[in-house]
Amino acid sequence: MPRWRRGRSLRRSLLVAAVSAAALLLLVLHLHGPELPSSSTTPTSHFPGDLSAGDGAGRGSGEEGEADGGRASSSSSSSSGATCATVERMGEEAASRGSPEAASLRVRELIRRHFLLHGAARVRELPAYELCKQGFVLGKASEAGFGNEIYKILTAAALSIMLNRSLIIGQTRGLYPFGEYISYTNHSFTIGEVKHLWRKNRCARTYGRDLNMRVDNFENPTETNVLCSDWNSWKDPIIWFDGTTDAVGIQFFLKNVHPRMKMAASSLFGLPGSLHARPNTFGELMQIIVSPSQTVEKAVQWALKGSSPDIVLHMRMMSNRPVRARKAAVSCIKRAIEISHLMGTPRVALISDTPAFVNEIKQDISEFAQVIYFDYKKFSKSFGLEVIGNDKVCFTDMLSTVSQSYVVTSWEVSPWLLDLYKQPIPYI
């Protein structure tokens, strides 16, 4: 066959193959193409580990048809990689899929068993060969501000549970931080007592274990080992996880690359993708680690006036009177009331370290709810107390944290807790 005929035959064969492949592709797309979602008004969002099998279980009756449409297209929506949701949607998921009471009670029992085994009362009575093997976690705070500083101690308590170590609460000149307003658990040690026990049992001389301390500074991202190290393998007697001035630091262990660390963090804080199963871990820790003084407890009871609120709004760093934050807070409260289907006039508690801002926002909220808040001037007059200067700031800041624990841990009520900050806090 001439060369030019062979070339024409080859081109014809390639053209026929290309047309056939295109026709086959169009046929497959026509038969198995993706289904369109039944509704575009409320997009379905999925979180890692929280797929759509129970998406429609907890929604209201008015959304049943939309939920059915969401289930019909669950495979296509999950394959599209939609993993984001608005704050409102996350709130609806948390409310409709169940409450965290069961998870919190599980964590409460976990904390109780830990301190029964690793608490000071048992550990200080151990024989020398066992005590010298014991590990500790240090929590040390200053009096720079109760709301931030208490997280350093609560973080240390959480880490001690994750690592099966005992808790040390640091002192300054023999005094605990904020000791005038709160008392601390007897499950913890002081650094002085640990040094004494180490010398008494000759841990360094007999067992070759010097009382060393390993410091990990969370505020230094280039040096912290929170993500990449297995802290269970650290042999240092004392570990100090420094710089954790909020609830975020300890939850970074949920992203740790070592399965054992991630599992320990998940058992205490729940899985990040399961919003309906996240326990109130810090509330449970605060219950056992610190106790309010009689004055602080009296102030909380005085402000609540004998009954618990339905919704608690916590506001911080509002000294510049942000208008947008105030409008957002009012909108969130209305939305929470709507979702909760509250009967009668809802009770909304306002908690803030900026009393002037409370006086402004209560006017907006009082139009549709009963407002509860702590007025330190009225309280001090009622009980003959003199709260001035830095003590006033510390006292109101302390109430913002203690009252949250006091209210939120009442499972019979389980009020909404809305946090409003000037700057956003990352969610792990």
From TrEMBL:
Signal peptide: 1-30
Superkingdom of the organism of origin: Eukaryota
InterPro entries cross-referenced by the UniProt entry: DUF7810
One Pfam family hit: DUF7810
Sequence segments annotated as region (Disordered): 37-100
Keywords for this protein: Signal
Biased composition (Low complexity): 70-82
Protein name: O-fucosyltransferase family protein
Organism of this sequence: Zizania palustris (Northern wild rice)
